[in-house]
Amino acid sequence: MVRLYFDDGYNGNIDGMLEGVRLCSLHKGGKKVMVTPGLVESRDALNLQLIEAINEVFDIVIVTGSLNAELFNKNLKVKQKVMLADKSSLTAVLANQTKSGDIILFANDAPNFI
């Protein structure tokens, strides 16, 4: 078995991101991992709605960038959260935190400066 990668990086709206979360909830296997900066051009209320959905599905969430970091850090209730100021160490974090059978969702892959 291999790690499953779900690249939904071009999706930056609440409906699409919630659908990505729903699809990952169907995965039967290893851990569910999400990599996201959250919703970039949005209100806190929508990010909180996304966080609620994430809390119900994911084991590990890797938040990239500082834009929504405080909101996610305060409200994520997953087993493990990783806060990255930028994506420079993302590959190493994924290599250390995931294994065969896990699903990794890349949701709204914003630029590094966000």
What does this protein structure show overall?
The chain has 114 residues and is an alpha/beta fold. The chain has one domain (4-107): Protein-Tyrosine Phosphatase, Chain A. The protein has four helices and five strands, in the order E-H-E-H-E-H-E-H-E. Helix 2 links the parallel strand 2 (32-36) and strand 3. Helix 1 (14-25) packs parallel to helix 2 (44-57). The longest helix is centred in the middle third of the chain and has 14 residues, at 44-57. It is globular, with a radius of gyration of 13 Å.
- What name goes with the CATH superfamily? Mur ligase, C-terminal domain
Judging by the overall fold, what is the CATH architecture?
Alpha-Beta Complex
Order of strands in the sheet with the most strands? 1-5-2-3-4
Average per-residue pLDDT, rounded, comes to 91
Strand content: 15-25%
Q: Find the structural class using helix and strand composition.
A: alpha/beta
Termini separation:
34 Å
The general outline is globular
What's the arrangement of secondary structure elements?
Elements (H helix, E strand, L loop, with lengths): L3 E5 L5 H12 L6 E5 L7 H14 L2 E5 L4 H7 L4 E5 L5 H8 L5 E5 L7
Parallel strand pairs: 1-5, 2-3, 2-5, 3-4
Helix pairs in contact: 1-2
